Amino acid sequence: MNRGSEPTLIASVQRALRLLEVVGQHPGGITAKCLARNTGLALPTTYHLLRTLVHEGYLAKLDDGAFIVGEQVAGLHDAAQAQQLRSTIRSTMIELREDLNAAIYLARYDDGEVVVDEIVDSPRTPRVDAWVDFRHAAHATAVGKCLLAGLSKDERTDHFRRHPPEDLTPRTITGLRELVERPAPALVVDTEEYSLGTACMAAPVRIADLPVTLAISFPVRKLATTRDYVRPLRAAADRISRSLAVAGDYPSRN
């Protein structure tokens, strides 16, 4: 690479980041003089950068004059972990989309509502036309039915009290007894209950205290081949379950 094509770097930003790195290596704190010595920066420059970093919350100054990592860094760390988790989950969804040639959905049941957090589709695998909000169509979608299966009967009853099931297509199931009492299978399928011409399959994602599901949608004409979808869908749901278990949290977009 010739000099003219090298990126323009801002030296003060590089110095500030180096200070953050060194402070992070000293859990008990480190003084400005030691920081200057460790980084090779002039002491006046070190003080100037430290004042700025403290003002912005990236460092904190202790009573004895030592500097420690500030709350802003903790926030960045949490955000980075959440973004990495979302990236890992999305990669799994992309692989599943390519494997099954179907649109992929990740959804949760949170605070009494169905929330679709992620959709991975493409021009050749378009998402279902959400002509009715998924929050009001849990009874008619594999996504919603799988999530509701993770609730108690009382919670399902409460859901349908707030969102009475309505006929969305001639194939929509609206009977409360069946929707509330009938146990859902481990893998849920809806056949044109939400949208004519479209079928959907959903598998539970295992995470404590939060119903989550991974689902696919595809043209109903492919129903005859759905048994080929079962193993990849379950495997992807298990991979996401393991990612969430390691992270210890769900990457909510709220």
Automatic annotation (TrEMBL):
Domain HTH iclR-type: 10-71
Any Pfam family hit: HTH_IclR
SMART domains registered for this protein in UniProt: HTH_ICLR (SM00346)
Keyword field: DNA-binding, Transcription, Transcription regulation
Sequence ranges assigned to domain IclR-ED in this UniProt record: 72-246
InterPro entries for the chain: GAF-like_dom_sf, HTH_MetabolicPath_Reg, Tscrpt_reg_IclR_C, Tscrpt_reg_IclR_N, WH-like_DNA-bd_sf, WH_DNA-bd_sf
Statement: the UniProt record of this protein carries the keyword Hydrolase: no
Entry-linked SUPFAM superfamilies: GAF domain-like, Winged helix' DNA-binding domain
GO biological process, one term: negative regulation of DNA-templated transcription
UniProt GO molecular function: DNA binding; DNA-binding transcription factor activity
Name of the protein described by the UniProt record: Transcriptional regulator, IclR family
Species this protein is from: Saccharopolyspora flava
Lineage, broadest ranks: Bacteria, Bacillati, Actinomycetota, Actinomycetes, Pseudonocardiales
